[in-house]
Amino acid sequence: MLARQVQRAAELGYVVRTGVECEFCLLSRDGSAIGDAFDNQGKPCYDQLALMRCYELIAKICDSMHALGWARTKMITRTPTGSSR
Fold first, then answer.
1. Which one of 24, 37, 62, 70 is most buried, by most CB atoms within 10 A?
2. What is the sign of the dihedral through the CA atoms of 26, 30, 33 and 38?
């Protein structure tokens, strides 16, 4: 079904593109809590310090995605606490 739609789009002059949105939460090693105890703001998506505290790990995740050929356009933090994409 998808192949037919891709072919149909091509016949109309379109190119079908798709991508993934990798979301992840950083947890403690035992999974019982978020990985950053200081990530506790009411609106953590606006706390850039939380992102910078785990920059080394997030950079490794981004580099690994790049190595897989997954182009990324941005890296953001989100609500709820500990969530990134």
1. 62
2. negative
By the 8 A CB rule, do 81 and 54 touch?
Answer: no
Q: What are phi and psi of 25, to 5 degrees?
A: -120, 135
This prediction has a pTM of 0.55
Residue 82 burial class via C-beta count within 10 angstroms: exposed 0-12, middle 13-18, buried 19 and up: buried
pLDDT tens-digit profile of 10-52?
A: 999 999 988 777 777 778 889 898 878 787 777 766 677 877 8
Contact 26, 84 (CB under 8 A): yes
